[in-house]
Design a protein that fits this description.
alpha+beta, 2 domains, Arc Repressor Mutant, subunit A
Length: 279
């Protein structure tokens, strides 16, 4: 006689952009209370105006009582705040603050910003720094061009691992184990350009040979992506510096593509040495 295993009560909210966890043997390590709290945080992360308790209960498909208890704990720990009238809940900035307390990344960003700013002034171009994060590339720092126009990628944006300059440089300058992990964790982002495996292998080989990437952007016409690695002591990429180069057609003559590439390489080399010495 077969007996059915009762399913856990409630469901995860459908949150766009949040990876659903594949539950196989990991079901042995379920922590229902923790899952419930994380589900609430993920749900509120998509609601800039917050939600009422009734709306959270409806979305979570759980009892009002268990949601109330969890919300009270999240409020007490300052992960969630109530509005002044007390009927609507939203995320606090605590998660944001915790994310920026991560010492290695925080130190790298602090070191990178003045060097990136110096590059932007000399090159008259914008630049951004990307790091690998959970299957894709996270833009963790960005500096605009000092001129009135530029092309930039917003800080905090997540861009594709397999179709962007930053992603290709990160994949090129990593060890074999990290490469396999990054490929396995990859999650296509919206509008990601498909890349065939043999094409990717050729791209990475070309980057490895010359030490940088320079090509027309796969996302935007008129932009040439120049991307270089920031290397750690083991010569694997901690991050990438990327300049979305735009050629001016005005009477002002700024640095050309070769000059911009040299400035970007110099900035990355400075950061590679600085970060390596302070590790």
């Amino acid at each position: 006689m077969q007996t059915s295993v009762p399913k856990p009560r409630g469901r995860r909210p459908k949150v766009a952009g949040v990876l659903d966890v594949v539950t196989t043997t990991d079901e042995r390590y379920r922590a229902p209370a923790l899952d419930k709290g994380l589900d609430i945080l993920e749900l509120l992360a998509t609601q800039p105006q917050g939600l009422t308790r009734a709306e959270i209960v409806k979305e979570m498909d759980r009892s009002a009582n268990e949601i109330y208890r969890m919300l009270e704990r999240l409020v007490a720990r300052q992960y969630v705040i109530r509005n002044l009238s007390g009927d609507r809940y939203s995320l606090s900035l605590k998660l944001f603050a915790l994310a920026h307390m991560h010492p290695p990344l925080s130190r790298l960003i602090n070191q990178a910003l003045p060097i990136m700013d110096d590059f932007a002034r000399k090159a008259e171009q914008s630049c951004h720094m990307g790091v690998y994060d959970r299957g894709n590339v996270l833009i963790c720092a960005q500096i605009n061009s000092p001129r009135g126009w530029s092309f930039s990628v917003q800080r905090g944006a997540r861009v594709g691992l397999l179709d962007t300059a930053s992603g290709h440089v990160l994949l090129t300058f990593c060890d074999p184990g990290s490469y396999q992990r990054m490929r396995a964790e990859h999650i296509p982002v919206n509008d990601e350009v498909p890349v065939r495996e043999e094409g990717l292998v050729q791209i990475l080989a070309a980057i490895r040979e010359c030490g940088y990437l320079e090509r027309d952007s796969a996302q935007t016409f008129g932009v040439v992506d120049v991307s270089v690695p920031i290397l750690g002591p083991d010569n694997t990429a901690l991050a990438t510096l990327t300049c979305p180069y735009i050629r001016s057609i005005t009477c002002h003559v700024g640095p050309d593509l070769a000059q911009v590439r040299a400035l970007l390489q110099s900035a990355a080399q400075t950061l590679s040495l600085t970060h390596g010495m302070q590790r």
